[in-house]
Amino acid sequence: MKKLAILLGAALVAASPSLGAEITGRITQGDGNAVVEVNGQINDGDAEQLREILHNYREHGIHVSGVRLNSHGGNLRTAYFMADLIEKNGMDSVIGLNAYCDSACFLLFLAGHHKFVDSSAVIRVHSVAIKGQEDESSEAATTRMARIFKRYGAPPSVVTKMVTTPATGLAPLTMEECRAMGATVFGHYANN
């Protein structure tokens, strides 16, 4: 009953209409750990929302083992802070069946302690735009992001795709590139 109350509390925190992504927590079957799900556009306030959910579970002695992602991206600054929380809490990252992880979402995936991706998932990256514009500031931000990608273990081909793809485009990653960053690829087409 206590775990149900925590789960409902986490869902209520996540349901605020002023926030971007739908961020929910749930207790997994068997091990009693929790998993956080991030669905939708990443916007201002989402990092604080994730922090609150993690705090609520921790207060009740429940370990959050991972984060499931399905997002076309959003605010890069917010994603950076969310990635920091994922890394500091030793969470695994998962992109499941037919899910998307584009743009800023990819930073959350990279931050996972262990990374898992379904072979049906779509992962795409592009360079940084600031307020919709590509200029000297966005080029500097793209360079900083390339360094962060590299620190998290993204292979050179992924860093190159991010740097060379205009902010208005999306460059898809291959499952081989996912494996090169240490991700476990699962699903129907995992051996392709």
Characteristic terms for this protein:
alpha/beta, single chain, 2-enoyl-CoA Hydratase, Chain A, domain 1, 3-stranded mixed sheet, globular, disordered N terminus, 192 residues
Give your account of this protein's structure.
With 192 residues, this protein is an alpha/beta fold. The chain has one domain: Alpha-Beta Complex (2-enoyl-CoA Hydratase, Chain A, domain 1). The protein is 41% helix and 20% strand. It is built from seven helices and nine strands; from the N terminus they run H-E-E-H-E-H-E-E-H-E-E-H-H-E-H-E. The protein has helices at residues 2-14, 46-59, 76-88, 105-111, 136-151, 156-164, 175-180; strands spanning 22-27, 34-39, 64-70, 92-95, 100-102, 115-118, 122-125, 171-172, 184-186. The strands form two sheets. It has a six-stranded mixed sheet. Strands 5-7-8 form a three-stranded mixed sheet. Helix 2 runs parallel beside helix 3 (76-88), helix 3 packs parallel to helix 4 (105-111) and helix 5 packs antiparallel against helix 6. The longest helix is centred in the last third of the chain and has 16 residues, at 136-151. It is globular and about 45 Å long.
Q: Main beta sheet, described?
A: 6 strands, mixed
State the CATH superfamily name: 2-enoyl-CoA Hydratase, Chain A, domain 1
Order of helices and strands: HEEHEHEEHEEHHEHE
Fraction of residues in helix = 40-55%
Nearest-integer average pLDDT: 88
- CATH architecture classification: Alpha-Beta Complex
Number of helices: 7
Question: What is the radius of gyration?
Answer: 16 Å
Oligomer: single chain
